[in-house]
Amino acid sequence: MIRKVFVSLICFISIISITACSFQPNNGDTIRLAEVTRSIFYAPLYVAIEKGFFEEEDLHIELTTTWGGDKTMTSLLSGGSDIALVGAETSIYVNAQEPAEPIINFAMLTQSDGTFLMARNNTADEFAWEDLKGSTFLGQRKGGMPQMTGEFVLKQNHIDPHQDLTLIQNIDFANIANAYASGTGEYVQLFEPQATMFEHQGLGSIVASFGEESGAVPYTVFMTKEGYMEENEDHIERFTRAIYKAQTWIYNASAEEVATAVAPYFDDTSTDIIADSFVRYRNQQSYAQTPVLTEEAWNNLQDIMDEAGELPERSDYNTYVNNTWAEKVINE
């Protein structure tokens, strides 16, 4: 399903390629950044903005939330943004269609799945994966990274997601939390801060982490078109350095300091919830500690996609991952 969406995306970009040239390369110190969603999972990015790490690199970030991998890649491919923060699987889908310019991954932000398993009727101490058999499980949309990782973890724990439980995956991403809160499903796969918020509200208990179960993957990555990278190497280097400063900072700062820094991005969420959500991610090292995207993580991602039947073809690490600037800034 998701693969078909990206095939359509490439066709769309091809159609508009004549008009897309009206988007001129950005030659100043402003970088237009498209993020796939707004999430505490992306705390290092917001820290880099709020703590002035981009400013120290003489960069101004114009941040846009594009709400979906397809929309994010449309923005990047058409020239509406310079850099995208999105799941690395989107670059695999797009590059498999041989676009005019390959999409290159150059800095990793998160290194594990960011979802948690919430149970309506039991606690972490009571939970066993076997409990899911015969249950109703409210998962993520088919072909997206959360759903692929979720199914991978279930299979690793001897649960067939399509035979051993009732799997619901036709609810739009933005409405999954509301569906669970309204009574749908005995189990649900949620990102933070929804999981912690629901636990505080007594709607269920977080019983497992898909990030801990699935291992290291380049879950959310900064990527750009090859042409932009070649024309703006200095921008990419300074951008990567700012991200690395933030990655280092969040692993040394208190939860309260981080919550205060990122609070402007979450108007409807208390700093206590932000802090608790952040600690849950940091404790399991979901936040990458450096921007380097390893070959092992890249291959693990493709194994998960392959298991889900969504991998169009194996994507060469050395072709579509460029760690030049990530390795430079961590060795300075």
UniProtKB/TrEMBL annotation:
Keyword Glycoprotein: no
Domain SsuA/THI5-like, chain residue ranges per copy: 43-252
Major location (coarse): periplasm
Entry keyword set: Signal
Pfam family, one: NMT1
GO cellular component: periplasmic space
Coiled coil stretches, renumbered: none
Annotated compartments: Periplasm
Signal sequence range: 1-22
Family according to the record: Belongs to the bacterial solute-binding protein SsuA/TauA family.
Protein name: NitT/TauT family transport system substrate-binding protein
